[in-house]
């Protein structure tokens, strides 16, 4: 029994607001329930009618002797609360609230929606909506919606936050030969959301692939867990719109500016194995691919074409998508050479030439599919005078039958003359496109999914030794008491040290003598920096002195900085001068964190230094559940990694220490949600160990 079984497979359904008047939503829903072939009991609810659409009508849900599992509500917004209350009292388990006029219309609507949710909570009811088209399950079967189309049965579950998008897709799906297992309009997601329906579809034996169109995610953490579990059972493909608006990342740090507002979704989807579609077209191309084609074992693609240009386009796309052009075995090449005309291309792409009829396509396809070095095949066809589209389609279908493990895709480039063949392929479940690009994009989605499935879930990092939470709390306490949100360098270094992040020694001093004493303790050379939360660009105000070698230099450096700062910014509050040990140069890196409102802390790693925003060589991961394997992948994604492994004869850097430092930053920002942003830039990486030089921490 799944969590939403009584919603998607109810024993009885009430339609509240059922109307005898054709054209009204309450009438459409009732007719849809009846006409979908629903086997359970149907109760039309209407205060004025005895009978609607041939069924006995009831004045209220409370009048039904046995409570239905589901009530679909289509009464005006002002009546919804009382109807929901009635449903609760009657013992209804689930509501689908079609009615609009809630959160989406503003403050008053939001209040109404909150009251509706409270009623659901009070009676233990689950609710889809409000403001939805409803849902359809083709296997129950039940059409609990006012959509005009009942789709054909299929293996795709489609969840859509936009009702309009949902009805448009349903209308289009029939002509496109697409079937659905379930279609859900998510609406305002006041109670149930995409998370619940992803979980439900993952458990649904009729669903092979889960598609979502969403505009936001209600609970980032729950989403990651549920979608991550679902993605390991079946492909989850999501098109998320609204990429330019707030996923809201603050951007006062380097890391925040590098991340941008949409990156958190990218990172989150990738980390939990969800495939991100970039358009509605891609969403459904991937749906067809996952529903129809076997997932290829690897990334080696073969192309069979009757023309050169499309073959080149396809080859370019294979490479651009990170796939590989298959290298045929010696036997395949010899056989192709022997039987195909001398002008034919016998390597990949196989060009069977413009005068190819079905038999030549069949031969080439047969050989290519039998080759163990081929995982998937794209058949390209342009309509030359002698082309036999239907017979060639039959050949494709026969070869596919003989090689069910190979993913075969087609791109029939043309119109009317290829339409019959293309329709046959669609009917028989071979994904067929008009141009090569979407075919290759779909294959890359399948390959990506296969790789994800074959990657073992990284083990959670073991508890970190040497963590001093109390020490961090004490620093934060002092900062807040001082009415600040930005830590001084010495405070940030202390926080880092409490979490075992190797920070270069630094001390805050208030007099030249104190500065000298600290410098002597650390050992020369040292750096002096003005300590003032108001001065962000210290060098610009003459607030930094580097490479000081003696007590005398420290003393005069101290005085000089004080004079400079006083000259430039007489109003600035200066806490003193920080004395920092001058560290030997290492590879300059950045480790940072910015916080996303949905998914929490995002960790950044990359090439550091002053040009970090220009070079943008940075990779990101969510801090939560960050595994060692993911940290390693994160390093490998950057160009900095080439430097770390030892570039042009240089000795490799201490990658182990780097992985450890990233883990510790992730732990710190997870343990302390009050850290809104953190940049360590630069971190110097050495052959042995690291040194965090400049650490910025901002609290909320
Ligand atoms: N219990 C049962 N039936 C009730 C009722 C109650 N408490 N209160 C009213 N009704 C009946 C009415 O008598 C009417 O039946 P009738 O046609 O026999 O008179 C029926 O429910 C509908 O009420 P009505 O006042 O005619 O409303 P409507 O049909 O014009 O509009 C909605 C109702 C829900 C369709 C409308 O409020 C709405 O929200 N429309 C937008 C829906 C939408 O777009 N959703 C989002 C999609 S993305």
Overview of the structural elements:
The protein is built from 24 helices and 30 strands. Helices cover 40% and strands 21% of the residues. The strands form 6 sheets. Strands 9-8-11-10-12-13-14 form a 7-stranded mixed sheet, sandwiched between helices. Strands 15, 16, 17, 18, 19 and 20 form a 6-stranded parallel sheet that branches. The protein is an alpha/beta fold. Coenzyme A (COA) binds at residues 16-17, 19, 21, 24-26, 45-49, 74-77, 79, 83, 98-101, 131-133, 163.
Radius of gyration equals 32 Å
Poorly predicted spans: 245-252
Spatial strand arrangement across the major sheet: 9-8-11-10-12-13-14
- Number of alpha- plus pi-helical segments: 24
Enumerate the distinct ligands: coenzyme A
Query: In whole angstroms, how far apart are the ends?
Result: 44 Å
CATH topology of the largest domain: Rossmann fold
Which structural class do you get from the secondary structure elements? Answer: alpha/beta
Helix content: 25-40%
β content, as a range? 15-25%
- Which whole number gives the mean pLDDT? 93
